[in-house]
Amino acid sequence: MMHTGLNIVFAREIEREFDRASRRGWLASADVVIAADRRRATLALWAFGSVFAGLIVWLVLPGAALEAAAAVAAATLLALARWAHGDRRRSALDRMVELQDLAVPGAPRQVTGAVLERRAQLLAPHHRRALAAAVRRSAALEPTALRAASPGAVALAHEPELALQVAVRLEADGDDGRLPVAVERLLSSGGSVDTTLDRVRSLVACTAC
Known about the structure:
79% of the residues lie in helices and 0% in strands. By secondary structure, the protein is mainly alpha-helical.
């Protein structure tokens, strides 16, 4: 009995440590999102400043060249503001979608709002259908096309049964954002896909976790 009790205590401690580690991961991802949003906001301010400066220059010293230069600078900065740190921000949001049940109470509203928006994008029917179609195409790749395919697509081509199960789950399940996240990672992976493929496999196998 004592041995059983110790095992229960040990299991609970492992569970608590896992929960603490998950919360730390959620908070670290939140920091990435906040930092990216600040940089994007700064670039956007610079862009609007360029537009304003260009307008002033045009009013004081009318000249098409100066006006065009200001417009180009503003457009460039706006593009940077839109895409700066986009990949890191999206990866952080994806991780937070996976850990949504562990969201920290009192987290900044901008972060929780961004997570909910990303989750809605992942669960949108058209997005899930598009992912399912990509998975089906990967599973149907001819051997001659594998050389030009991504590692994730190649992995699915080698496991057509799994690919079919993934596609069916994507088309049917609109409540869990974890599988769309894992499939996106798999299809966009440029290196080893073993860990991501195992993640996809476990999510498909587990219908109640």
